[in-house]
Structure formats: C-alpha cells, structure tokens
Write a structure and sequence with these properties.
Helix content is 38%, strand content 22%. With 289 residues, the chain is of the alpha/beta class. The protein has a seven-stranded mixed sheet. Helix 3 links the parallel strand 1 and strand 2. Helix 2 runs antiparallel to helix 7, helix 5 packs across helix 8 and helix 7 packs antiparallel against helix 8. The termini are far apart. Bound molecules: S-adenosylmethionine. S-adenosylmethionine (SAM) binds next to helix 2. This is S-adenosyl-L-methionine-dependent methyltransferase. Pfam families: Methyltransf_23 (PF13489). InterPro entries: SAM-dependent_MTases_sf. It comes from Marasmiellus scandens.
C-alpha cells in the first residue's frame, strides 16, 4: 500500500527530460549492491562526522540535495530540520520502499542540463560524490553557488579517487589499477582527483565569504589508525570502492581499464598489512557572500 502511494508520489514529481544521456559511468542498475554501498558509506560518514555536516546550519528553510542516491542524507536532513522543505534531485529515482518524511520532495533531473530552480532560492545545497562524475566542474560550481541565497551554505564533498601511502612507495598493483581507472574516467570527461581540488576551486570562485575543508583519511588497513570510527569507515570504503571496480568490469569490460588480474593485484596490496594505504574524502562547507 505504502509502496503504491510512494510510487505515485514519485511519479508526480518526476519530470522526464527529453534527451537524457547517461553521464554516470558507474552501475546504478545493480540497485541492491549499489544501494547497500551508498547507505553504508552515508551512515559511516554521518557516524564519523557526528551529523550531516560540519557547517553551523541554523534552522534552514530550504535544502537541496543534488545526487540524492538512496535518499539517506536527504532523509536525515529532513528529520534534523523538520520545518525545512528538502528537495532531493537525481537522474535515478529514489528507492521505492523508502519511509519518506512529508517535508521531502523528489525531482528527477540531469545535472548536465540547466537546474530548474530559481536563483538564490536555497539555504543549503548538498552534493556528495557527484562532482567526480560531472564534466566542467568549475561551471557546475558556479551554477551551484547561484542557487544559494546570501549567507547560505554549499556542502560539497568528494573523494580524491586514488590510493595514497604516507610511508611506502605505491606498489605496481595499485598503480596499474588507477592508471586504468583514470583513463576510464578521462574518457567520460571527468576528473577522479577532483576531491583534492575542491577547496581551491571554491576559493578561486570568489563566491564565498568563507571556505572550510576537513579531509577524512579512509584507511584500507585498520592498523593504520587507532580511531575505531576511522577503522570502520576505512573498512566500508574498501569494500565500496572494490564494488565500484567490479561494477566497471561487469558493465564496461576491459575498456574500463580494470581486468580481473589488475583487481586481484590491487586487492593483494590493499590487504597487505605492511602498507598504510588510504583514500581521502574531502568535505567542504562554504558560506555564500
Ligand atoms: C556515487 S552516487 C552518490 C549518491 C549520494 N550523494 C551519496 O553520497 O550516497 C552518485 C549519484 O549521482 C547521480 N548522478 C550522477 N551524475 C548525474 C547527473 N548528471 N545528473 C543527475 N544525477 C547524477 C547518480 O545517479 C548517483 O545517485
């Protein structure tokens, strides 16, 4: 019953864009695995950050989440700010069986097209793990800033999608995988290393009175940190990015630059206890002038 009601609700808000190319190179059709991966990351991050964001949000009335995925952040935002109207937007519909709070509405859209929102109409815009899939990030950033009212907050968050090691040379397995992954992403016209560039982009845009960043190191080896929350987040990230590579192999094949042999060598190095491999998440929060 709820499922039917919810589907009708979604259908009401869905506006089909006539020409919608598939810009998201990762497998969204494997809803089960993709949903678990995204939800686990959301709850791991929210636990580590002890909330939705480090920005000092004070009773926002209009919140926009671009790239709502499974709806986990949107729902938590709607529950945290029950008097706010929260808009979730994505090219994929939200999962059908969500218990969606009444202050959430969903709009289907492709972010490569102009946003269907009035300028300066949101107090908060959140976009996580999406810029990495969009070409021309500077242009996207200025479109995001234009939707914020003065004093509003842009919460822009992404991974720097490569593995780093503070103490050792990167091994050939890891190097080979990222060579292929980088080529695959470049073919889509997108930048897998955008996470580490967000702060500079935000500062150079001159749209914000303050730009803040927190870098969360997600360790592949639990012994690299004594913080249990970071150990847990690292574990989640490890299986999550492994799932991304399996997805690329399944959906794109060898053209994705990742073969079973390359993935095996990557796994061996990632699980090697003598290494300190990590992937960094760059969480930014910036206040509009
Ligand atoms: C890696 S998921 C992240 C989802 C969510 N933000 C989270 O943190 O769990 C990327 C999301 O962006 C959406 N997406 C990617 N490119 C898009 C585009 N051009 N237009 C609309 N949605 C897009 C995908 O459908 C997917 O839900």
């Amino acid at each position: 019953m709820f499922k039917r009601l919810f589907s009708a609700q979604v259908a009401q808000h869905v506006r089909q864009v006539p020409h919608m190319p598939p810009p998201y190179p990762l497998p969204t059709s494997s809803r089960g695995a993709e949903r678990r991966r995204l939800d686990d990351m959301h709850f791991g991050i929210a636990r580590y950050m002890k909330g939705l964001t480090y920005a000092p949000l004070k009773n926002p009335s209009r919140i926009l989440e671009l790239g709502s995925g499974t709806g986990a952040w949107t729902i938590q935002a709607a529950q945290t700010f029950p008097s706010a109207q929260v808009t979730a937007a994505d090219m994929s519909p939200l999962p059908e069986n969500l218990d969606l709070p009444s202050n959430v509405k969903y709009q289907q859209m492709n972010f490569l097209n102009p946003f269907p929102f009035k300028p300066a109409s949101f107090d908060v815009v959140h976009m996580r793990f999406v810029m990495i899939h969009l070409p021309k990030p500077q242009e996207v950033l200025s479109r995001l800033a234009s939707m914020l009212r003065p004093g509003g907050w842009l919460l822009l968050e992404d991974v720097n999608h490569t593995l780093l090691d503070a103490n050792n040379e990167i091994g050939p397995g890891v190097r080979e995988l990222y060579k292929g992954y980088q080529r695959h992403m470049e073919r889509q016209g997108v930048n897998p290393l955008i996470g580490a560039q967000l702060r500079t982009m935000l500062e150079e845009s001159k749209e914000f009175s303050e730009v803040n960043e927190s870098v969360i190191p997600c360790y592949m080896n639990p012994r690299s940190t004594s913080d249990p929350d970071l150990q847990e987040l690292g574990e989640i990230l490890k299986y999550s990015i492994d799932g991304v590579y399996v997805g690329i192999m399944d959906k794109v094949g060898p053209a994705g630059g990742i073969t079973p042999e390359i993935l095996r060598a990557w796994r061996n190095e990632v699980n090697d206890p003598s290494r300190d491999l990590r992937i960094d998440m760059h969480m930014t929060w910036s206040q509009k002038k």
